[in-house]
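Moderator note: this is an archived Q&A kept for reference. The question asked for a predicted structure of one protein chain; the sequence and the answer are reproduced below.
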Amino acid sequence: MYSVNRFELYNPVKVVYGKGEFERSNEIFGISNVLVVCDPYVSTSDYFKKAMSRYKSVFVFDKILPNPPCEMVDEIIDIVNESEKKGLKFEGVIGIGGGSTLDTTKAVSALLLSDGKLSEYLEGKKKFEKRLPLMLIPTTSGTGSEVTNVGVYTLNGIKKPMTSPMFWADIALIDPVLTYSMPRRVAATTGLDALTHAIESYWATSTQPFTEGLALRATKMILESFRATIDGEEWARDEMSIAANIAGIAFSQTRTTAAHAISFPITSFYNVEHGLACALTLPSLIRWTYEHIPQKMDELVVYLNFKDINDLAVRIEELIEYAGFSLHLRDYGVKEDDLERIASVSMEARIIDLTPGKPQYEDVLEFLRRIY
């Protein structure tokens, strides 16, 4: 067995799970005047309107773009500031939606009490020191953003992650009913994201006993419910809501690794959904990582009841295809000449160094060639 010399565990987010809990979100949050950032389809739902009717005042921004550009976040701040000049005052911020919405809400809650543009914080020129009270409510089962201190934003056409102590929410409200309306494709891509979170957290060089247990359990739950989840079965969406949250707590401590690093340029350049972009290299990385931590990966295989590491990798490939996606980059508009650029940008993400064996540029290029 490997030894553990030191680790830290810190996740200050209060997690509330339950069907129908969204309707009593005002009681859970304890705040009456709120700014709500949400996906467009959320704001028109009867479930949303009923829940929001319980607040004293609600100001809704629902024009969220995927892979949130820094300029969009800055625009929200300008709109909210103008509203406050007209007498509206917000005591807290609620984010309701997928990962892009939740990440946007984190930045908004901090920028409302800070000066400057989001790009200045993303580039490390400034640091957030405070934020408004924050509650995050996912409508998808995958990103885990509601329990992490990470936000991912687009700057100059490239997705970039940033962490901040101010990005920890006060409350993560998990109501699986909100996921029942997820289209098949969204359920599939977010489920693949959650699976990648769990497996990467398990093998990350920053792993530790607490996160390993969470990652193992989340991986098993996701694999067992994935097909039924994308087929729309409610029991599976309940299960996936919990599993995605567990995976989020796991990688909130360890961060992610090469699959996420490589996904950033694939999403930025070719508009491939984040979870799918992560999962495309996951089978290759599983096989490659085994060479560096065979004992640990064997423990994963045994726990998941696969015969060997290749069996696990093949299962993930089968799930990607079951969801209706190709395993090959060329089918997403990627040109063979683009692979070197993708590999180069991937190496700029520091999380790639958390991968066992620490893949180098040539390794990443080989991963990309295998799935081209």
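Archived answer notes: The beta strands are 14-17, 33-38, 57-61, 92-97, 134-138, 150-155, 158-163, 171-174.
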